[in-house]
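From the pipeline queue, job 12 of 40. The input is one protein chain; the requested action is below.

Action: predict structure.
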Amino acid sequence: MKKQYLLIILFLCFSKNYGQEPIQEAYVSKTYVNVDDEWSEVNFSSMVNIASNRKGQLKITNAEFLRDLSDGKANMVEKSAYDSAEFTSQTLIKEKTEKNGLLNITFEGNLVFKTFDKAYTAASRIIFIVNQADIVGLKIFNKENRKEYALDLTIKD
C-alpha cells in the first residue's frame, strides 16, 4: 500500500502543470500611435486597464482608447459593461529574444469589442513585450484599419 502512495506522489511531483498561466493586471503609462510611419504620444481622459498573460490572453478596458483603435466602429460606453475588448482565437506566430533581454511574443487573432448594439471584431496582431516574467509593453496592430499602437505598461500592485 505504501508503494502505491509513493508512486502517486512521485507522479504528481514529476508531472507537468498544464494549468493556466496567471493573469497580470496593469495600466497603460504611455500610449504611442503610428501615423504615416511616425510615432507620437497620445493621451486619454481615463486610465487604460490591461489584463494579460504570456499565453496571449488579453483584455483591454477603456472605451475612449478602444473607439480610437477601432476607428469609431465600436460603440463603447465608458464605465459600463460595454467598455472592453478581448483578444480571441490567438495563434502564436513567433518568439524573439532581443539583445537587451526582452522577449517579444507575437500572436495573431481577433480583437472582439463588446458594444451595446453589436460586437465588432477586428483581425489583429499583438506583440507582448516581456521582461523576465512581467509583461511590460504591448504593440497592437489592427489589420482592418491599419492602426498601430505601442503601450508601456505599469503593473498594478
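Job complete. The longest helix spans residues 2-14.
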